[in-house]
């Protein structure tokens, strides 16, 4: 689940869930790569935000492996915010 936050006007991946029957098969990473490319190319965004709770090591790993970086913010009391920044290539 992703979209533009009405409060800060930023693109957020708010939920990213893989059914337990399909976990540990690389599908999450592949799906996340596809989602990042979709947001980058279709929505023309140069930043994507997400968050994770500290005890969710898998979520932390999969986001950081794709270059999401902590921005020092915490939301909802215990969710650490990460941001992925990239340049949007404009075509003529």
Q: What does this entry look like structurally?
A:
The chain is of the alpha+beta class. The protein has one domain: Gcn5-related N-acetyltransferase (GNAT) (Aminopeptidase, 3-Layer(aba) Sandwich). Helices cover 27% and strands 29% of the residues. The protein has 2 helices and 5 strands; from the N terminus they run ββαβαββ. It has helices at 27-42, 57-65, and strands at 2-4, 11-13, 47-53, 69-75, 79-85. Strands 3-5-4 form a 3-stranded antiparallel beta sheet. A two-stranded antiparallel ribbon has the order 1-2. The longest helix is centred in the middle third of the chain and has 16 residues, at 27-42. The termini are far apart.
Number of helices: 2
Q: Sheet with the most strands?
A: 3 strands, antiparallel
Q: Compute the CA-based radius of gyration.
A: 13 Å
User: How do the SSEs run, as a string of H and E?
Assistant: EEHEHEE
Regarding CATH, which class?
A: Alpha Beta
CATH topology descriptor = Aminopeptidase
Structural domain tally: 1
Mean pLDDT across residues: 90
Report the portion of residues in β strands: 25-35%
Biggest sheet, spatial arrangement of strands: 3-5-4
Give the beta-strand count. Answer: 5
Q: Could you say which structural class the secondary elements and strand pairing correspond to?
A: alpha+beta
CATH superfamily: Gcn5-related N-acetyltransferase (GNAT)
For the record, give the distance between the C-alpha atoms at the N and C termini, rounded to a whole number.
Answer: 31 Å
CATH architecture assignment name: 3-Layer(aba) Sandwich
Kindly report the oligomeric state of this protein: single chain
User: Based on CA inertia axes, which overall geometry fits?
Assistant: globular
